[in-house]
Backbone:
């Protein structure tokens, strides 16, 4: 014989893993949860919206950190995301440490590029990188059709 669960409309409907429901009074601001579970649901939904949010801008337009300016912009965006609560402190410290390692390696990267392609080619590449930032390729709108 199966017992039917009686649902009281004034109690929280949060289901536990073992089949029980929370017995706290339902919140006045939520349709079916108590204050505690409504807050927990709100925080979970907020985190999901942050996770779904576009963090692709973190590494810049081309996704590469090749210059000091790239790293500076990266650290600035990283700080903004951290302040907004989109990055946990544990992950933040790891990302900052990785950026510090990249900063230490930029002079070596520059030296390798000078040896491999020469100073002029290196400067040309920097000009290309900076000009692509100044003139992002935006889609051009179609002109209105003339009648």
Residues:
């Amino acid at each position: 014989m199966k017992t039917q669960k009686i649902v009281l409309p004034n109690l929280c409907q949060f289901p536990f893993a073992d089949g029980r429901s929370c017995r706290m009074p339902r919140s006045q601001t939520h349709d079916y949860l108590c204050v505690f579970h409504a807050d927990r649901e709100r925080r979970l939904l907020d985190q999901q919206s942050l996770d779904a949010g576009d963090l692709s801008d973190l590494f810049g337009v081309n996704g590469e950190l090749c210059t000091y300016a790239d790293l500076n912009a990266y650290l600035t965006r990283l700080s903004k995301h951290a302040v907004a609560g989109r990055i946990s402190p544990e992950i933040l410290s790891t990302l900052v440490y990785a950026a510090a390692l990249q900063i230490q390696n930029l002079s070596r990267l520059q030296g390798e590029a000078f040896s491999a392609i020469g100073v002029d080619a290196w400067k040309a590449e920097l000009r290309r990188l900076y000009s692509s930032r100044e003139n992002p390729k935006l889609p051009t709108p179609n002109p209105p059709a003339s009648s």
Observations:
- Helices lie at 35-52, 68-83, 89-117, 119-134.
- The radius of gyration is 26 Å.
